[in-house]
Structures are given as structure tokens and as C-alpha cells.
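Invent a record, attention on C-alpha cells:
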Amino acid sequence: MYLDYNATAPMRPEAREAVMEAMLAVGNASSPHLPGHAAAARVDKARKQVAELLGCSPGEIVFTSGATEANNLALRAGYSTGGGVITSVVEHPAVLEAARELTADTPNALTLLPVDADGLVDLVDLHKALASSKVSIVSLMAANNETGVLTDLAPIVEAAHAAGALVHTDATQMVGRLPVDLADLDVDLLSLSAHKFGGPQGVGALFIRRGIDLPFRPLIVGGGQERGWRGGTLNVSGISGAGAAAAAVTCALPVEQARITELRDKLEVALTQQTASSYINGARDQRLPGVSSVTFPGAPADAVLSAMPEVAASDGSACASGAPTPSHVLLAMGRNREEADSAVRFSLGYATTHRDIDVAIASTVRAVAQVRQALGSAI
């Protein structure tokens, strides 16, 4: 039972078909001949499809290898305008590590905002940070990859812009799960990764709002592709798949959102009722529809997952797999090490069924009881 969509979603049939069609064709999208024009047309189509999903102009989309590259590109470009960086302690490592590296040689240039027990940033802390020094860019994720907690971006954008700062959001987990309309959400930069919503791995995009004062700060220089923002031959097959997945989501999202929310609620109610002392991590009313981080006290997550190999879930971020320390997100929310070590993340998506959830419930309840018994946990 695959319940690890936050790590990667199964490729949608529409995306798979588009990838295969592009792979069977030949042509460099930068070449002037007919096969090159055909490849470029595939890229143009995908750019329009991604833009339609986001509610922006195709010319505001720059294709990348994924959200990690897009995050690094956004922070690098924003920081180059002069001033400090504000982000939060619960960001994905692709933002946290990039911000730390960029500001390593400048004391006090990086501000990490704390979060409360629900994983939410306090606007008072943001206003204090903006008032204390010149800030070039504020980067706060739209939805947390471990807990699904949502950030209310509108007041953040308003405060940052009033202080003269740019706003970037890592929307990797939100795009394809909840509606995003960049005509209303006035962020300057937004990162996404196609494989989170049913596209292929290895392709993502950075939205760069037209008209913002932002110098080119490419990570990869070379042939000047993507309007100079990213050099290198375009990944036509991957980009085609990303576009097809975006088009599929645009049509299906309203129905998928409601159905996945129902399945998540079913999972959470059953697990919290059938496993003693378990609880959900994150703001209950401000979470993605398909994400559930559940702590099972007295049952380490790695042992629980090992005891139910028929369920593909996670003990945290896939990008931090094998890390010797527990989740930095849960620790920042005030959980102790034992609590953080006992959290399992279930993430649902477009292909999840009621049967998947039924099996996951039965397997998890059995696994938690088995682990607790083996460890002699008094719960």
C-alpha cells in the first residue's frame, strides 16, 4: 500500500504517455531545424500547462531539475539584491542549507523564525525580523513536507513587500494538492517539483514574477537556455511529462482534494482510536488534505515501519533519510527526541483507495502493538 506521496507520487498515465512520446522523438529544443522546432513545441506546451495550473504567464516559468535547484536558484537570486535572508526552522533542507551557505560569510545575515507547537510561524516574529535590519528575501514554505502544515502566505507577502523584501515560497508539497493562483498570491518566486503531483522525477520549475527587480544569478551557466536563468540542453521528455501531469491535475484537483481529505480523516480517526496515546502532529485545520504525521509513543517509527513492510510510509523527509538525528521539524515544534523518533508520516494522493487505507490501518495497529510489546512499553 503506497502512502508516501510526499516523497514521490506514482507517475500519472498522462505524464507517462507524454514522456514516452517525447523520448521516441529526436531533436534539441534549441536547434533551428524541424525536429528542433518540434522539441521546442513540446516544451512550450508544457510551459503553458504548468502556468495554467499556477495561474501565471508561461513566460514566468523556468524549468529546472527539481525543487531543490529551484530553491537554490531563488535564494541565490534574491540574496544578490543586498540584505539578509529570513526563513523558518522547519523549512526543507533545500532551503535551510542554501540559506546557510549563502550567508555563511556575513554575520547575522540569516534569521530563522521559530514555530509554535502546531508548526506555525508567528507573524509578530516576522515583523520584528523585518524591522531589525535590511532584508533581501523572505522564504517560507507553502506546506510542510513532514506534517503538511500550511502557511498563510498573504500576510507574510504583505509584510515583506512593505519592508522592501522579495518573497519566495517552496510550494513543492502544495502544488497539485491544493489550488494555487498566482494572480492572487503575490509571491515573487515559487518552487515546485513535478514528481510530487504525478510527473516524472528530475524536473521542476521556478516561477519568477515578471517585472520584479531581480538580476540573473544562474546556478548553471552555458548556452543561455531558459532566458539565461539555466544553461543546458532542455530535458524535453521530463518537461513534457511535467506539463501533462499539471494538465491532469488542473482538471482533477477539485474531486481529488475532497476524496483525499476524506481518506486522510478516516486514517487518522482509526489510528488515534485504535492505538493508545497516539496523536497527530501539526495544526489540525491548516494541513494538506493528504498528509498525516502520527506519533506512536513507545513505538519507534523505524521499528513500526519494519514491522509492516506491506505499507510504504515514512519516518520523515525522504531527503533526510538515514540522518542520525530525529526530525528537525518535530523538534522545532517542541517534541522531544523520543516523540520525534516515534512519528510516522503517511502521505496520500490521487491513486490512494479506501482499500489502501483499510490495509494501512490494520497493519499499523498491529505493528505498533507488536513493537510496544517487544520493547515492553507501558502504554
Notes: The beta strands are 61-64, 84-88, 110-113, 135-139, 166-170, 189-193, 204-208, 279-281, 291-295, 343-347. DSSP finds eleven helices and ten strands in the chain. The chain has two domains: 13-248, 252-377.
